Recover the amino acids of this structure.
């Protein structure tokens, strides 16, 4: 029974999420401020975090940043909730490491679908993973969930890792943004394809010179160059 952490200061929303998660068979844990929320992520290592953007003590963006730079919890899936609908808020959330986002008011049915898909696909990727892939300076070890560039470890989020792994497992093949969303995010509900662009840009930055292997084909998609 996966444990899901809800970090939300609105008590009505928090209780509604808790009730519905229990109905779906999850073990919900709640925090109503950012500082306690981050502490619970570190202490409990939940299977997934539902994270509000606007929180007392520490906002959702800073929590996301802290999680992604802390090795033992860096791969924790995060769904961000925001009351703002502007494109910039969504992009910033993705850039600091959120795996997905929903704008309030949101559909509980849609949220539950995204949770199930993220957890399911995460498990499938681990089972189907090829243990080790190497292309010159770039090496990926799926069993250890490690990426190295010229022997130096690189810290990636779960989605960045999954994206690079999928492209490296299929070198030379071109994939559309929609295909990558399906294969890596496992999202079969509406989400903007800009999500892929944000993650690819961040992935290239982290890989440095090795990032040149990630090729953009304008109007088509992305591929990995051997």
């Amino acid at each position: 029974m996966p444990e899901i952490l809800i970090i939300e200061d609105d008590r009505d929303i928090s209780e509604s999420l808790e009730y519905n998660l229990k109905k779906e068979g999850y073990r919900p844990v709640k925090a109503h401020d950012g500082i306690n929320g981050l502490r619970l992520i570190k202490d409990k290592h939940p299977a997934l975090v539902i994270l509000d953007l606007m929180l007392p003590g520490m906002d959702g963006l800073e929590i996301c940043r802290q999680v992604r730079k802390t090795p033992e919890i860096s791969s924790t899936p995060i769904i961000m909730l925001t009351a703002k609908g502007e494109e910039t808020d969504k992009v910033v959330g993705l850039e600091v490491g959120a795996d997905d986002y929903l704008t309030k008011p949101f559909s509980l049915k849609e949220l539950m679908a995204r949770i199930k898909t993220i957890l399911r696909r995460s498990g499938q990727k681990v089972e189907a993973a090829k243990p080790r892939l190497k292309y010159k300076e770039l090496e990926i070890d799926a069993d250890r969930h490690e990426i190295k560039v010229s022997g130096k470890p690189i810290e990636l989020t779960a989605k960045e890792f999954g994206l690079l792994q999928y492209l490296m497992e299929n070198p030379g093949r071109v994939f559309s943004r929609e295909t990558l969303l399906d294969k890596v995010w496992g999202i079969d509900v509406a989400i903007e394809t800009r999500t892929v662009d944000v993650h690819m840009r961040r992935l290239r930055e982290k890989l440095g010179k090795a990032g040149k292997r990630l090729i953009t084909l304008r109007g088509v998609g992305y591929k990995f160059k051997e």
User: Anything to note?
Assistant: Confidence is low (pLDDT under 50) at residues 124-129. The two ends are 41 Å apart (CA to CA).
